[in-house]
From TrEMBL:
The gene is cobB. Zn(2+) binds at residues 128, 131, 149, 151. The keyword Transmembrane does not apply. The lineage of its organism: Bacteria, Bacillati, Bacillota, Negativicutes, Veillonellales. Belongs to the sirtuin family. Class U subfamily. This is NAD-dependent protein deacetylase. GO terms for cellular component: cytoplasm. It is found in: Cytoplasm. Its cofactor is Zn(2+). HAMAP family: Sirtuin_ClassU. The active site is at residue 120. It holds the Pfam family SIR2. It comes from Lucifera butyrica. It catalyses: N(6)-acetyl-L-lysyl-[protein] + NAD(+) + H2O = 2''-O-acetyl-ADP-D-ribose + nicotinamide + L-lysyl-[protein].
Amino acid sequence: MKQIEQLQKIISNSDNIVFFGGAGVSTESGIPDFRSVDGLYNQQYHYPPEMMLSHTFYVEHTAEFFDFYKDKLIFPNAKPNKAHYKLAEIEKAGKLKAVITQNIDGMHQMAGSKTVLELHGSVKGNFCERCGAFFDEEFIIKSSGIPTCSCGGTVKPDVVLYEEGLDNGTMQQARSFISKADVLIVAGTSLVVYPAAGLIDYYRGNNLIIINRAPTPTDERANLLIQANVGEVLGQISIGLR
């Protein structure tokens, strides 16, 4: 496939790559995305998923929020796929400077990536809203009803809900990595969720690569466009060639 050969050449000749990914990076791990035909937003619930994942819903319908959260956003048996492992390999080779992800599943770290910026937080971390105590994912899974700390406070997932702002420090780091990158690989994201999608506007290089099954609003800006599964594409890349 000519596009894979192009991607191979670009990766082989660069040591300043940044990867920016979304839900499509983890679909091959069995974690559904949000906007595809089988995605979370096309399933039927008592309330729209966007409402159930909002800060207001969390506050006003806390028990229902956790029922939905534990059922639809936590996948304790999921494992990293070819995309996650390949990115960790590229980083270990000194080529990939950072993984910037909209995902909350922790798969990149599980695969071995070290520099990971989680724009929307992670299901792996949970904190008591009263005393700040940390709780792992298993605590949430095993809890019944509303997860509660020994101090009586509610244990909230460390994920960014609708109506909540992204962490300024993480966003600043992401902008810095992207603005300095020679190669920006954007994969598995619809590029319609802001402010995250606006990060690619900080890229100044001439190797913008988009890998996504469906078209995105930014396809015309890409120097290389590959419409396929992320894991299938990255799994064909060899590291160490120059």
